[in-house]
Design goal:
It is built from six helices and no strands. The chain is mainly α.
Length: 158
């Protein structure tokens, strides 16, 4: 139970892992770029709405864990959180379109700026999901087999 390998099987792995192939090194670099862009998104969202920004910071942390530990589980969590955030943006913009207040002169400049920022953030989420999904396939492939084998071993041991 106190074994460090038990902790390694979980999603919160803090052990840094070097990318095994050249292709995975390139993908990790792309994930780092996405991380810093997402960090900027988190800071801007914190200015507009603190809770939304905090959720973005959590998402940045998950992405950091995904590319620094080459963890399959964190890649999946990051994709799921981005899909949820994308659905929230679609809902907000859809509601604005339905009510007739989408980029309307009735809104304040800040409200319209936040709407434009949300649309740009939605585009970023789609791009981020694509690259994280590609990374999910290429980066975790060499390391995943050992973790699955260890998980099966733990199940058999009980």
């Amino acid at each position: 139970m106190g074994n460090s390998k038990d902790f390694r099987v979980m999603c919160l792995n803090f052990e840094t892992v070097q990318p095994p192939t050249e292709e995975s090194k390139v993908l990790v670099q792309k994930l780092r770029i996405i991380f810093f862009i997402h960090l900027a998104v988190a800071v801007i969202k914190t200015i507009f709405l603190v809770t939304s920004g905090l959720i973005e910071f959590l998402n940045c942390f998950i992405l950091y864990l995904a590319y620094s530990t080459l963890n399959y589980c964190n890649c999946v969590m990051y994709i799921i959180f981005n899909i949820m955030s994308s659905v929230a943006i679609i809902t907000i913009v859809g509601q604005q379109i339905q009510s007739g207040s989408f980029l309307s002169s009735r809104n304040s400049g800040i409200s319209n700026a936040f709407t434009v920022f949300n649309i740009l953030t939605f585009i970023f989420y789609i791009v981020a999901i694509r690259y994280v999904f590609l990374s999910l396939i290429h980066i975790s492939e060499p390391t995943r087999q050992a973790e699955i084998s260890y998980a099966v071993f733990c199940l058999k041991k009980k």
